[in-house]
Every structure is written in structure tokens, then in C-alpha cells.
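ok so I'm stuck.
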Amino acid sequence: MDNDKIPPLGKYLASNEKRERDKAIRNLRNFLTSKNSNLDDLESAKLWRGIFYCFWMSDKPLVQQKLAWDLSNILLEIPDVDNCWNFYKGFWDELIREWSGLDRYRLDKYYMLIRKFLQAAIKVCVNDNFNSLDTFNSILLNPRGASPLAYEDHRVPASLTYHMSDIFTDELNKALADTDESYEIPLAQLLKPWSQLLAHTRNNVAYKRVFEGVITKLIDEDDEDIENIRKCVNLKEARKLISNILFEEASKSSANPTNRRKLYEFVDELRMEDD
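replied:
not stuck anymore, here's the structure
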């Protein structure tokens, strides 16, 4: 789009003055939720650089929480779903670019921001009846690209994969809170990035975190923290779907042989228990 249609938000988003940053966030929302908010990659990168440092400047916990909520909710207000996903991709592009520069005092608040954005992104999928789920999945996992689950891109910090593994089922459960008993979710498709990572990663810690944080939680009959997921897909169906998708991914010639063996053993055990 024409540069004169883009508000000069970057310097205001990164201002030392909270009043200016708050005003810039309001202008950002107004701009991105308008019908003329198409951005190319360069324009998106400039905006996200400003947003990143806007969040960097927020030091008080309540201010951080409100800002994380306000920023992530913009995803749900963007009228065009393609623009919405471009905004979410820009979030990950910027976060991966800047992650190594974060000090330990700021990590927790950015982990919170990731959580808020993940929940909002899943809500976009729910509101879209999961028609754009493939796009969401491709943002989470591009094996060789800047994505949080990329297992072949050494630029992507493993800590992002670990954190996403820890929070995915929790945020999926929250995103489904307003659905009714008849609502169905495409669980196999939702788990595609995770099953692909399990089959291919050479990072043993990542394998363990994904397996325990995503797979084990979904097949645990005693887990009471995923009641909204359970109403959309029952335990028996979830176990069957998971065994099938893990077997399919492990069967691919590109799978890590060690992971293939472990996944085959798990699938055999799961199917024996369910027979």
C-alpha cells in the first residue's frame, strides 16, 4: 500500500512516554482494523519493531498484562482473515529476530505475550470455523523458516518450542470456552505441526516437552484442565485420532529413525490399551 496511508507509529510505539505509547496503540488498532490495512512484509516489520519495543518499555505487571491483552485482541478485530494471519506472522518474525537480545528479567513478560497471542490466534481459527487452520499451522511450523516450532532452523531458540509445548492445550481449551456441546474441532489437523515435530526433531528435550505437554495431556482421562476440548472431541476419539496421525507421520521416510521407533512403540501401546 502507499506509504502515506501508513501512520508514523514506530517512533511513538517505542516512546519513553507511556501516554504517547498508549495513543500509538489506539492508532495502531484503528489502522489495522480498517479495511485498508494491507501491509507488505517490510511495512509489517517496521510496525512490529515498534510494537516489540512498546512492550519492552512496559515494566509494571498490570500494565504489561493489559498491553498484552490489547495487542493480542487486535488479531480478533482485523476484518480480513489474511491480514489477520499476516499480523500474527509478523509477531513471530519479530519475536524470533529479537529473542536472543532479551535479558532474563524480561523473558516472563514476553512468554505471557506469546500465550495471549496464541489464544487469540486459535480464537481466529474457531471464529473462521477452522477454514484457515492450514495458514495458522504454517505460521507455527515452517521447518526451515522463522516459526516457533521450526526444528531445522537454528536461528529459532529452542525455548520458544518448549514454551509453546507447555501452553498449547491450555490456550486451545480457553479458546473453546464459548463453544457448545455440538461444536467439533479438527483435532488431527490441529495436531499436524506437533506430530510433524515429534517425528522429525533431533532435539530430545523438544520431543519430550511436546509429547508430555500436548500428546499426553490430550489422552489423559484424569486431566480436568481440558474440559472444553473434551466436549468437542471425546477421549476415545482423541486417542484414536492421535494414534493414527502419529503413525502416519512416523511412517514418512524423512522421519528421524529414533523418533520413528519411539512413536511406533507408543502407538502400539495405545492401540493395545484401547482394544
